[in-house]
Amino acid sequence: MRRLYGAGVAHAAVMIVSFVLAGAAVLTLGVDALWNPDRWWQSIAVWFIGAAILHDLVLYPLYSLADRATRPTRNWTVRQVSVRQHIRVPALGAALTLLVFFPGVLNTDDTAIVAATGLNRDPYLERWLWVVASMVVISAAVFLVRVVLSRGTPRAARTESEQR
User: Fold this and answer.
1) Whether residue 75 has pLDDT greater than 80
2) Keywords of this protein's UniProt record, alphabetized (predicted)?
3) Residue 86: exposed, middle, or buried by beta-carbon count in 10 A (0-12, 13-18, 19+)?
4) What is the number of other CB atoms lying within 10 angstroms of the CB of residue 8?
């Protein structure tokens, strides 16, 4: 299977289930629901294709370059615990939540949101900042716990992945 397909059976099963769910969603909503002729930019099809193009052709190369640029010449470690992952995870979380909630965070025109939900966007920036701060604090706490726990573990007993 791996030689023919290129991945394992579990990957093939997940892909099949994903396509079945996508097909079921299109059948349930109807093809007409994928396109909004009044406001084309609010169409599901436009957002799906735009997200795929934006991610694959713009964002992926950008964050790959940013990741490569931040790769240190020597490994940043404290007692054999890598600092890099504890910086990358909250940064990625902040970027993804900003990407998802950017109209609210940047406080753009909220007439459509108020009409659809009855809620305004006033607390978005503050809540996004709290979420980002929480991710940074949790990452720092996990890092400190890993450093403290690594002090008692003999160096030879640690796995290779822990030493990166």
Assistant:
1) no
2) Membrane, Transmembrane, Transmembrane helix
3) buried
4) 11
Q: Per-residue pLDDT tens for 54-73? A: 888 888 898 788 778 777 66
Q: What is the DSSP string of 90-103?
A: HHHHHHHHHHHHHH
| pLDDT score for 115 | 74
Q: Are 164 and 82 in contact (CB under 8 A)?
A: yes
CA-nearest of 92, 90, 119, 88 to 103 is: 119
Same domain, 138 and 113: yes
Domain assignment of residue 43, given as a range: 37-69
Strands 81-82 and 77-78: antiparallel
Same domain? For 97 and 161 the reply is yes
Helix axes 124-152, 84-105, angle to 10 degrees: 170
Report pLDDT for 152: 65
Instruction: Name all contacts of 136-142 with Cβ < 8 Å and 24+ positions apart.
Output: 136/90, 138/90, 139/86, 139/87, 139/89, 139/90, 140/86, 142/86
Q: Helix, strand, or coil here: 82? A: strand
Clarify whether residues 99 and 163 are in a common domain.
Answer: yes
Here the tokens at position 85 are 């992952």
